[in-house]
Amino acid sequence: MDVSITRLIVTAVMIFLFLKIGYKIVGGMARPVPEPPPSGELRRVNLRYQCVTCGAEIRMMKAANEDPMPPRHCMDEMSLIPNRFE
User: Fold this and answer.
1) Could you report how far apart the first and last alpha carbons of the chain are, in Å?
2) What is the pLDDT of residues 24-58, one digit of tens each?
3) Which of 27, 49, 60, 86 is least surrounded by CB atoms within 10 angstroms?
4) What is d(CA 85, CA 71) in angstroms, rounded to the nearest whole number?
5) What is the model's pLDDT at position 2?
6) Rounded to the nearest 5°, which phi and psi values hold at 35?
């Protein structure tokens, strides 16, 4: 069998790279989910509200909890607009 040294080296390097990438992917999935932030600290949210009376829109990006109360405008609660990109 005629096997060149360069072919063996290239094969060994490719196997090493595939194993290293595979371990990184599996290691990334094995990490536990981080704990939620302590109460009183703002969390990231992506909510859009619209006033039913005048049509004004508000985008909420941070809130004290994941399901905040809707804001009030024109003395009424604003309605939640579903996100188009989720």
Assistant:
1) 57
2) 999 888 878 777 767 677 888 888 999 988 988 88
3) 86
4) 22
5) 63
6) -70, 150
**Residues 6 or more apart in contact with residue 15 via CB below 8 angstroms:** none
CA neighbor of 12 nearest in space, from 20, 23, 24: 20
Which tokens sit at 75? 């003395």
b vs e for 61-76, b when ≥16 Cβ sit within 10 Å of the residue's Cβ? Answer: eeeeeeeeeeeebeee
Structure tokens at 2: 């005629």
Contact 60, 42 (CB under 8 A): no
Q: CA–CA distance from 14 to each of 8, 19, 27, 28, 38 (Å)?
A: 10, 9, 20, 21, 45
Strand (E) or helix (H) holding 52: none
Say if CB 51 and CB 74 are below 8 A apart. yes
